[in-house]
């Protein structure tokens, strides 16, 4: 098992190389330049050109990419932001922690509601306990997250004045953004868990257990659920990675200083070091999450655990 984890960790190296190179290429072919973005529309061409030269923006893409990687290896630095002149990591890390806290709350709440409802819908298929949650899930999946957020702000912030509508200064500030993001997430968990559970219930080993007279509770929780959880765990890992990439709509709507809003701001100013730093952080987190999913697989399924044990 440990050898597999080491191999996956080494996979971070080509991942970071590929992500940084792609971003450098994309940013080089998009219109605009950081000099114009920083100095504004009133700066003359000579000033803009001097600023681009100072930032190294006029160098070929490959040269800028190589210099960026060299600074990471030799200095441990992701560069300085074009806009703020601050170290990228120093500016990115506090905002990443904000997004991480928000994402964990959304994940816990959406799993706690969505997964049990999905199991219930599968077990009670074609009953009201299946129809009602499924209809609600499809309705919520069709509603954009910004619409949910605006509706919550209008009712609970503007009309009732129960919760604040922007920032994250206290626990009350988390309520509306977490609920807005959770409503969209739990519908996906409900639908995915239901389909996975239905597939597991229809397997031969479940029918065999029922034929032997095993109690229905044991059949569901001991036999069907373990196998149904494998694709659900994968979905949880991937969706959590997407949350860490930044809940752009939620962060922009509620004025939350997270990774998503930082990426939007950096793209608008063509702040390459900050964009690349955000992308590298997200890619590393996503890879680590997938490693964690594989480890959880081994605990859920003895067959996978035996395979890892044989491979070292």
Automatic annotation (TrEMBL):
Q: What sequence ranges are listed for the domain ABC transmembrane type-1? A: 96-297
Q: Which domain of life is it from?
A: Bacteria
What the entry lists under PANTHER family is as follows: DIPEPTIDE TRANSPORT SYSTEM PERMEASE PROTEIN DPPB-RELATED
> What membrane topology does this protein have?
Multi-pass membrane protein
Compartments, record wording:
Cell membrane
Q: What family does the database annotate?
A: Belongs to the binding-protein-dependent transport system permease family.
Gene3D superfamilies given in the database record? MetI-like
Q: Which residues cross the membrane?
A: 9-29, 102-123, 135-154, 174-192, 228-248, 274-300
Q: Which UniProt keywords apply?
A: Cell membrane, Membrane, Transmembrane, Transmembrane helix, Transport
- The name of this protein is Peptide/nickel transport system permease protein
Could you give a single Gene Ontology term from the biological process aspect?
A: transmembrane transport
Q: PROSITE patterns, alphabetically?
A: ABC_TM1
**Organism name:** Intestinimonas butyriciproducens
- Spell out the GO cellular component terms annotated for this protein, sorted alphabetically and separated by semicolons: plasma membrane
Name where it mostly resides.
membrane
Q: What is the lineage of its organism?
A: Bacteria, Bacillati, Bacillota, Clostridia, Eubacteriales
Q: Which Pfam families match?
A: BPD_transp_1 (PF00528), BPD_transp_1_N (PF19300)
Q: Which InterPro entries match?
A: BPD_transp_1_N (IPR045621), MetI-like (IPR000515), MetI-like_sf (IPR035906)
């Amino acid at each position: 098992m440990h050898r597999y984890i080491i191999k996956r960790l080494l996979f971070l190296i080509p991942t970071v190389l590929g992500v940084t190179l792609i971003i450098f290429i994309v940013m080089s072919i998009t219109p605009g330049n950081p000099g114009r973005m920083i100095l504004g529309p009133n700066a003359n061409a000579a000033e803009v050109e001097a600023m681009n030269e100072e930032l190294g923006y006029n160098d070929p893409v490959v040269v800028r990419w190589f210099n960026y990687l060299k600074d990471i290896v030799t200095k441990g630095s992701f560069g300085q932001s074009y806009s703020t002149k601050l170290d990228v990591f120093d500016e990115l890390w506090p905002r990443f922690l904000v997004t991480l806290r928000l994402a964990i709350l959304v994940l816990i709440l959406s799993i706690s509601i969505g997964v049990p409802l999905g199991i219930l819908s599968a077990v009670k298929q074609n009953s009201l306990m299946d129809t009602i949650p499924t209809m609600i899930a499809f309705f919520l999946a069709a509603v954009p997250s910004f619409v949910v957020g605006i509706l919550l702000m209008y009712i609970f912030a503007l009309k009732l004045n129960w919760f604040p509508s922007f920032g994250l200064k206290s626990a009350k500030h988390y309520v509306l953004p977490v609920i807005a993001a959770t409503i969209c997430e739990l519908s996906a968990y409900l639908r995915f868990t239901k389909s996975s559970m239905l597939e597991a219930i229809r397997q031969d080993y479940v029918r065999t257990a029922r034929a032997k007279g095993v109690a229905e509770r044991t059949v569901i929780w001991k036999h069907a659920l373990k196998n149904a959880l494998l694709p659900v765990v994968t979905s949880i890992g991937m969706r959590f990675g997407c949350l860490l990439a930044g809940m752009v709509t939620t962060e922009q709507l509620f004025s939350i200083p997270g990774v998503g809003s930082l990426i939007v701001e950096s793209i608008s100013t063509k702040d390459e070091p900050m964009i690349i730093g955000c992308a590298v952080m997200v890619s590393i987190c996503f890879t680590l999450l997938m490693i964690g999913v594989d480890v959880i697989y081994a605990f859920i399924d003895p067959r996978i655990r035996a395979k890892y044990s044989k491979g070292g």
